[in-house]
From TrEMBL:
This is ABC transporter ATP-binding protein. Residues 3-237 form the ABC transporter domain. The lineage of its organism: Bacteria, Pseudomonadati, Pseudomonadota, Alphaproteobacteria, Rhodospirillales. PANTHER family: HEMIN IMPORT ATP-BINDING PROTEIN HMUV. The keyword Protein transport does not apply. It holds the Pfam family ABC_tran. GO terms for molecular function: ATP binding. InterPro entries: AAA+_ATPase (IPR003593), ABC_transporter-like_ATP-bd (IPR003439), ABC_transporter-like_CS (IPR017871), P-loop_NTPase (IPR027417). CDD domains: ABC_Iron-Siderophores_B12_Hemin. Part of the ABC transporter complex HmuTUV involved in hemin import. Responsible for energy coupling to the transport system.
């Protein structure tokens, strides 16, 4: 589904977090990375799309007003991984995934449900964790279980907030590679908040940089990841190199002096 955001604003008390954010159509089959320094509004943008954060502006899915969708319809179309993945749960990993699958449809579990849960856990390489209680898992393992929750209903829009924060490099590459493949194969529209600029360059078709509640840059990785943007937004001097595939790589050289 095509996602479009026009004039989105959101506040926490008197503090403006998003100020008239414009995101032209994000097309199915693509991965969009949200970048920006801490408190730039990345999480607020994702929560606003899902309806968890009060905001003003227009958000549409294939031209239909997103705000007019019921919570049930919105959750059926949109998969979401929050930044903070809770661990206080006595359920096993497979039970947690099944809970997400059966949300709003009754709690009886059949063989088809189990097959769907096992399939997404296989995709993420965590099938062996199925019968382990969530509270016994490491932070990275819990994060992958949470990703399985967001994927198991086969959403049309996938919103991931810092999905790699607790993962080692191997699992970071595996997870983002999986999201990229699902986007291509299933026409999924994925938006991922990240801090690692080089991961974004490697796996995203489009990068949106938030800074000061507004969009500082929007385009392909090569268009967005420039020394000027990096200096203006992150206050870091960097040079841009390319790997063998032509993907830009950000090489930091030092922090700029405070103004």
């Amino acid at each position: 589904m095509k996602l479009e955001i026009l004039g989105l604003s959101s506040h926490y008390g008197r503090r403006t977090v998003l100020n008239g954010v414009q995101v032209p159509a994000i097309t199915p089959g693509s991965v969009t990375a949200l970048l920006g320094p801490n408190a730039a509004g990345k999480s607020t943008l994702l929560r606003s799309i899902l309806g968890l954060q009060a905001s003003k502006g227009t958000m549409t899915l294939d031209g239909a007003d997103l705000r007019k969708l019921s919570r049930r319809d919105r959750s059926a179309k949109i998969g979401y991984l929050p930044q903070d993945v809770g661990a206080r749960c006595a359920l096993t990993a497979i039970e947690v995934v099944l809970l997400a699958l059966k949300q709003g449809t009754g709690w009886a579990v059949d063989e088809q449900d189990l097959a769907a849960a096992h399939s997404v856990m296989d995709d993420l390489g965590i099938r062996a964790l199925s019968e382990r209680p969530l509270h016994e898992l490491s932070g990275g393992q819990r994060q992958l279980v949470a990703v399985a929750q967001s994927l198991v209903r086969r959403p049309q829009i996938l919103l991931l907030d810092e999905p790699t924060s607790a993962l080692d490099l191997h699992h970071q590459l595996d997870l983002l590679g999986l999201v990229q493949r699902l986007a291509r194969r299933d026409g999924l529209t994925a938006m991922i908040a990240l801090h690692d600029l080089n991961l974004a360059a490697r796996f995203a078709d489009r990068i949106i940089v938030l800074h000061g509640g507004k969009i500082a840059a929007d385009g392909t990785p090569a268009e967005v990841l420039t020394p000027k943007v990096i200096a203006d937004v992150w206050r870091v001097q960097a040079r841009i190199e390319s790997d063998r595939d032509g993907t830009p790589m950000v090489v930091p050289e030092g922090a700029l002096a405070a103004a």
